[in-house]
Each structure stands twice: as structure tokens, then as C-alpha cells.
Specification:
Blueprint lengths: L11 E7 L4 E13 L2 H7 L13 E16 L3 E20 L18 E20 L4 E14 L11 E10 L4 E11 L2 E5 L10 E5 L3 E11 L4 E8 L7 E3 L2 E2 L4 E8 L2
Antiparallel strand pairs: 1-2, 2-3, 3-4, 4-5, 5-6, 6-7, 7-8, 8-11, 9-10, 11-12, 12-15, 13-14
């Protein structure tokens, strides 16, 4: 069994530049441990059950690898192709909360439609591509795509984690102060582990449900007053999609945000 107090993890990386540093090949090995904090978990999923076991484990990345290539084509296109691998122990996953048999029969209503944490060992392989194209001096397009293959040891799926992810962002600089942007986000291949709702304290039945794909379109603007002050406005989920980040929790429809940023 691995020593709980001492562990050695690689942390080494390197790059090779060719063609007058226009083409970069990179690779690296890494690993490490991170204490899972309750505040981080709630930030990720605010629907965590208040009766969830508060003991949080240490996320242990036994081995991580990343490698790929970066290049700049004619000072117009920045291209990045990469692959990543991560073997993680105590990887936290969200599952549907089951009412406590000790409290439910006593007359207290169960806390339904909330989530618990389960820990599993996962192997994650990610293939990704990122492209930035400067169409004109004032127009920039950022395109990103990632395919994730995450295989848990015990669970059927890596619950709520997308298999495919895509992002397209267009930015138009109207002048030195005013810029406009629009962003399209996509996520697909997400699964939820849910309870069938039958209260049987001897046997709880679960099933895997495939969640609808995420399509999210936003439109925004930024205005720079000076080097310290800027204002922004954002219209999010323009298509009014009711996709679910977590099971039975659809996102809000069209949302509008505005504010001021201060830099000191």
C-alpha cells in the first residue's frame, strides 16, 4: 500500500523548437495531491445534500502526461494540437442523494433531488485542438475542441463530465475603447446516475440517464474608459436553452449581466 505520508511524483517538462521557433513540440510528466475543500465542491455543485458525508478526501493524481505541438502560420493562425492523460485516485463524482433510512420513517421529509459524492479511480485521455485566427486587424476567432475519454474503475460513467466540448468565440474591436464578442459553447456525452424514486430500504435501484447536449450562445460588449476602469455587458443563453447542468436542475433562460471592472 502506498505510503500515506510520503509520495514521489514526477514534475518535468520540455520543449523543442524548430523552423526558427515557428514550430514547438512539447511534452511533460506531472502528478500530485490536492486536498478537496468543501467550498470548492459547493462552488462546482451548489445542490450538494446537507446530509452528505462531510469528510473530504485527497485527490491523488498518480500520473499525468501532456504533449503536443504549437505553431504560428503566417502570423495569422495560432494552432495547438495536444493529448493529455491523467490517472487519478479519489476522483470525486456526483451521484443522486438517497434519503437516510434512519430519519425518513421518523416523520422527517427526505432531502430529495440533491447530490452526494462518491470517489473512484479514473483514467482520463483528452485529445484537444485550439485555433486562433486573426481574420482582420480588428476581428479574431478562437475555436477550441476537446474529446474526453474518462473511464472510472467502479462507476459506470464519469458522471456529469462531458465527452465532447466545443467553443467558438468571435471578438471584434470597433476601436481602441469599444469591442464586441459572441461565444458559442457546446458540451455532449454527459451522463447522470439517478435513483428510480422507489423507497425500498433493502434495495435502491439506480439508472444512467444521458443528459441533453449543451448549446449556449452569448453576446457581449466591453468599453475601456481608461487603464483602470472598464465596463461590460453580457446577454447569456440567447437561445433560451433549458439544458441541465445537473439532473432536474435546468439553467435559467436568457440572462443579462452588466458591471464595471476596476484595476488597481
Amino acid at each position: 500500500e502506498e505510503d500515506k505520508f510520503l509520495a514521489v511524483r514526477p514534475d518535468v517538462s520540455g520543449s523543442l523548437f524548430v523552423l526558427n521557433e515557428k514550430l514547438e513540440f512539447y511534452a511533460g510528466l506531472n502528478g500530485g495531491r490536492k486536498l478537496l475543500r468543501f467550498s470548492d465542491v459547493v462552488d462546482d455543485n451548489p445542490f450538494l445534500s446537507p446530509m452528505c458525508n462531510p469528510s473530504l478526501g485527497v485527490v491523488n493524481v498518480k500520473l499525468g502526461f501532456e504533449g503536443g505541438v504549437r505553431t504560428n502560420i503566417m502570423e495569422i493562425v495560432d494552432l495547438h494540437l495536444g493529448v493529455r492523460y491523467r490517472l487519478t485516485d479519489n476522483d470525486p463524482l456526483f451521484v443522486y442523494h438517497i434519503p437516510d433510512a434512519m430519519t425518513f420513517p421518523s416523520g422527517m421529509d427526505p432531502v430529495l433531488n440533491s447530490f452526494d459524492l462518491v470517489y473512484d479511480e479514473t483514467q482520463l485521455v483528452t485529445v484537444l485542438a485550439d485555433v486562433r485566427v486573426k481574420l482582420r486587424n480588428s476581428l479574431t476567432a478562437d475555436l477550441g475542441f476537446a474529446y474526453n475519454s474518462c473511464k472510472p474503475t467502479n462507476e459506470q460513467y464519469a458522471w456529469y463530465r462531458p465527452t465532447t466540448e466545443g467553443k467558438l468565440k468571435l471578438t471584434y474591436d470597433f476601436n481602441d475603447k469599444l469591442s464586441f464578442n459572441t461565444t458559442f459553447l457546446y458540451q455532449g456525452g454527459r451522463y447522470a446516475k439517478v435513483w428510480d424514486g422507489v423507497v425500498d430500504w433493502q434495495n435502491f435501484n439506480f439508472e444512467a440517464k444521458k443528459l441533453k447536449d449543451v448549446f449556449d450562445l452569448s453576446i457581449g460588449a466591453d468599453y475601456k474608459v481608461n487603464d483602470q476602469i472598464s465596463a461590460f455587458a453580457l446577454l447569456d443563453n440567447v437561445a433560451h436553452q433549458k439544458y441541465m447542468l445537473y439532473y432536474n436542475y435546468p439553467v435559467t433562460g436568457i440572462q443579462f449581466y452588466a458591471g464595471v471592472k476596476l484595476r488597481f
